[in-house]
Amino acid sequence: MTSDPAAGLRERKKAKTRAAIREHALRLFEENGYASTTVDQIAEAAEVSPSTFFRYFPTKEDVVLTDDYDPLLVEAVRTQPVDVPPIQAVMNGMRAVFDRLTDEEWAQEKARQQLFLNVPELRQRAMHQTVVALDLLAEVIAERRGVPPDDLTSRVIAGALIGVVLAIMPPGRPETFETHDYQRLDEAFAVLRDNFTTG
Fold first, then answer.
1. 46-55, long-range: CB within 8 Å, 24+ apart, which pairs?
2. Which residue, 61, 64, 80, 100, has fewest beta-carbon neighbours within 10 Å?
3. What sign results for the dihedral spanned by CA atoms 168, 34, 62, 124?
4. Residue 163: Cβ within 10 Å count
5. What is the C-alpha separation between 196 and 183, in angstroms, rounded?
6. Mind listing the domains of the chain with CATH numbers?
7. Is 138 helix (H, G, I), strand (E, B) or coil?
8. What is the pLDDT of residues 97-150, one digit of tens each?
C-alpha cells in the first residue's frame, strides 16, 4: 500500500496554517492583551480569513486551551513495548514527547501557560480540557491493558496520573517551563508507580 503524496501535502499545509494562527494569536495576546485581541486581528496577522480561523479553532479561547501535545502523548504511550506497565509507559511517553520540543516550542508553551494565569475565563475552562486529556489517556491505557475503553481501573490510573501532573505542573504556572528538567515529574510518577500495584 502506497501513501498519497497529495494527502500528505494537505496535512502539512493544514498543520502549518494551524501553527501560524496560534503563533500570531499568542503574539497578539502578549502585545495587546487577551481581551483586546479579536479573531479578525488574529486572522489578518496569520493571513487567513476569519472562517478559516474557526475551522481550526472553534473559539478564541480554544487557541489557548487546545493542547496539541495530548495526541502526541497518546501515540507515544501507544507505541511503548507491550510489557511496560501503564504508569511507566506514560512516563516514557511524556519524556519522548517533551524531550523533542524546540526552544521555540517551549517558549510558546510558557506563553500559553501565562495566559491561564492571567485570564479568568481560560482558567474556568481549563478543567474541561483536563477531563478531555483524562479521557484520552484512559482510553490508551485501557487499550494497552486489553480491556474496554471505559474500564474503571484504566480510568483510575489515568486520573491518578493527571492528578500528579496537576500537583507538579498546575495550569497557570509558567515557571514550570523555565527549563527542560522533568525530574520532579519523573519522581512523582515513580511514587505513584511504586505504590500502585495494578498492571
1. 46/17, 46/20, 46/21, 47/20, 48/17, 48/20, 48/21, 52/17, 53/21
2. 100
3. positive
4. 14
5. 20
6. 1-58 (1.10.10.60), 67-195 (1.10.357.10)
7. helix
8. 988 888 888 888 888 888 988 898 888 788 788 888 999 999 999 999 999 999
